[in-house]
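Look over this entry.
=====
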Amino acid sequence: MIRFENIHLSFGRVPVIENLSLKIKRGEKVVVLGRSGSGKTSLFSMILGFVKPDKGRILFDGTVLDDQSVWQVRKKIAYIDQDISLGSIITSELIDSISKLKVNSMLVFSKERIHNLLEQFELPLSILDKYTQELSGGERQRLAIVIAALLERKVFLLDEVTSSLDKHLKEKVVDFFLQRDDITCLISSHDPQWYAGNSVKIFNVEDKKWKQ
């Protein structure tokens, strides 16, 4: 599904990732470990084509990621990070504007689906009438997850998406992603809820090894 082959990445003269190879199969849920600055977020940026490795290559569904293929790859991925930027707009208008994008023309953003997802993540329907900048950090994180779910992508890049949530809500979000067999997830998080059970594989970016 996603393959990193002999990746080297540096910023200026500072090496961040050296000779890293990693294969993520379709349907797998992989948590990446590593200290701050070890390159976890850079992995996400490289998959999305925002950062290019100095050496090595990345493949998505067997296609080498380059300037031409990256646009098609991005259409298949939902990226959610901890610094949710939703602009300054009424929430319902934000969802409506996303639904009208050409890339989403085949999707149906029904009121029932939206309401069900809001309820699932314990967001009140009244949030639809609020401006996005009025929302708390935890509300923005959950709203971003709702929008990502509406997009029906099959690959999720989750970068500290539960950092602003309490234990109960962390567990709800973790269950939503880990219990689905039809999606592939690459996860960076310090929250222990992601490590419970046997459904997650753990890869240490610094050691370049799978955790047994």
About this structure: The longest strand covers residues 14-24. Helices lie at 40-47, 70-74, 91-99, 111-120, 137-150, 167-178. The mean pLDDT is 92.
